[in-house]
Specification:
466 residues, alpha/beta, OB fold (Dihydrolipoamide Acetyltransferase, E2P)
Length: 466
């Protein structure tokens, strides 16, 4: 019960923490949401943009504008952001306020409309090493081939010329529109605002137009509603690390929950378990992956497991099985990345990574628990805590001189009954005597017949009779 109460306390405390968007912004139907996209393209930016897009769609915003000023960053993160933007159900705009270099150009091509400030540029997206050096020849060819295909598909999906996007990435790509060669082979394509908005055969080369500001863009694009700005916060950075460490948090939480039930008198494992699970749900909540309904589902599962242990240990396993199922379902649900408008049941791609993380955590925890169950009862720490359980009224042989135990003749095979819950230590009655006993690690409910299997000084080891 202690771990349950601690977990409830942590959840109630965290419930006072609102999501950053909800705390500072109020998006109304048909508003235009403005999201800054500056600095290095990195994983925390992915969490922020995903959260912003979900908030805009859920509120019924009319459009979302990404105000971009970046020289680039990680291509893998840009690819994930591209996937997020391709999920968008509202019109998407990029306003290039100075720079859309390298990975930034990939993200811009994943939006449906591009506007540029008068002095700005887009392009030069060739992949390089983290040190800034060129990739080795073979790896470069493979990388460019993959990313070129990704850029082409993203550009075509959003109504842009796929040759333009490929020329951002590959030096050997020639861009030709009709009889006109817009960009020859031999160098990466980079476009100024004037070049990107030039009309060829009645259609702009890339950008819809030039705008002095986001407000100017809204007027020229005919966007309705108020302009509502969303800003990133430190919570995105925190959420990034928590979601990355999700398997470790689950592993530590499961192991500590096991130790809480197996070591009487030890409070620290329960506190750590509650903290790990609370941190797990908080991180996925801040990342926009989970709501409080998954927390309620997990708490309900914990409650059912406790009810099984405390009241129905000998009659049914229904409560425990349902409780464990709800807990696992809530952990899996929290990691699924679902967007507004998608089906309730996740697809295989959506559930693949969460299933992998949950499976690895459970597998590692199972191995750890097997090892602990075998060796933990032999440790001095375990034996020390085993003597700290609450004593029931009546005499006890704990700490009594050795001759009392000898007179009682607690030999292997002697039968008695558990007076307290043995998890795994507690008290048992043998004849008219109350004795401190310990099991080999199993859980034995009160009033269960037990038998002595080993005596070692004042230490009496018992097991369930039958």
């Amino acid at each position: 019960m202690r771990i349950f109460l601690r977990y409830i306390f942590v959840v109630i405390s965290l419930a006072a923490i609102p999501r950053p968007a909800e705390a500072r912004e109020l998006i109304h139907k048909d508003d235009t949401v403005v999201v800054p996209l500056g600095g290095e393209i990195s994983p925390p930016l992915l969490l922020f943009l995903r959260r912003a897009l979900k908030a805009a769609e859920s509120a019924g915003a009319g459009a979302i504008v990404f105000e971009m000023d970046t020289y680039g960053g990680r291509l893998d993160t840009a690819a994930e952001i591209t996937s997020v933007l391709n999920h968008a159900t509202i019109p998407t705009y990029t306003f290039i306020n100075s720079n859309a270099g390298s990975a930034g150009s990939l993200i811009a091509l994943a939006t449906q409309h591009i506007y540029m400030s008068p002095v700005s540029a887009i392009g030069a997206a060739a992949p390089v090493l983290s040190t800034g050096e060129d990739l080795p020849a073979t790896e470069r060819d493979k990388t460019i081939s993959y990313w070129s295909a990704l850029i082409r598909s993203s550009a075509m999906r959003n109504g842009h010329n796929p040759d333009i996007g490929e020329a951002f990435m590959a030096k050997e790509k020639e861009v030709k529109i009709g009889d006109r060669v817009v960009h020859p082979k031999g160098s990466l394509l980079t476009l100024t605002a004037q070049e990107a908005t030039e009309k060829i055969n009645g259609k702009p080369l890339l950008a819809d137009g030039i705008a002095d500001s986001v407000e100017d863009l809204a007027r020229k694009a005919g966007l309705k509603g108020q302009l509502v700005s969303l800003d990133p916060s430190g919570f995105e950075q925190l959420a990034f690390w928590i979601t990355k460490l999700a398997p470790l948090l689950l592993l530590l939480g499961i192991i500590c929950a096991y130790l809480e039930f197996k070591i009487p008198g030890a409070s620290l494992p329960g506190i750590i378990a509650a903290f790990c699970f609370a941190l797990f749900f908080l991180g996925h909540y801040l990342a926009g992956l989970a709501g409080w309904e998954v927390v309620a589902l997990f708490v309900l599962g914990v409650a059912l497991v406790l009810i099984e242990i405390m009241f129905f240990a000998h009659s049914t396993i229904v409560f425990g099985v349902v409780g464990v199922f709800l807990m696992l379902a809530s952990l899996l649900w929290a990691m699924v990345d679902r967007y507004p408008g998608e089906t309730f049941f996740p697809t295989g791609q959506m559930i693949a990574i969460p299933m992998r993380n949950l499976f690895l955590a459970i597998l590692a925890a199972t191995i750890a628990i097997i090892v602990l169950a075998r060796y933990l009862p032999r440790t001095s720490i375990y034996r020390r805590f085993a003597l700290m359980t609450t004593n029931p009224p009546g005499p006890s042989l704990a700490g009594a001189p050795r001759e009392f135990a000898t007179a009682l003749a607690l030999a292997p095979g002697m039968e008695g009954a558990a007076l307290t819950t043995l998890r795994p230590s507690g008290k048992a009655r043998f004849g008219d005597h109350v004795v401190d006993v310990v099991t080999e690690g199993e859980f034995i409910a009160a009033e269960t017949p037990v038998t002595v299997i080993q005596t070692d000084g004042m230490r009496v080891v018992v097991k369930r009779l039958g």
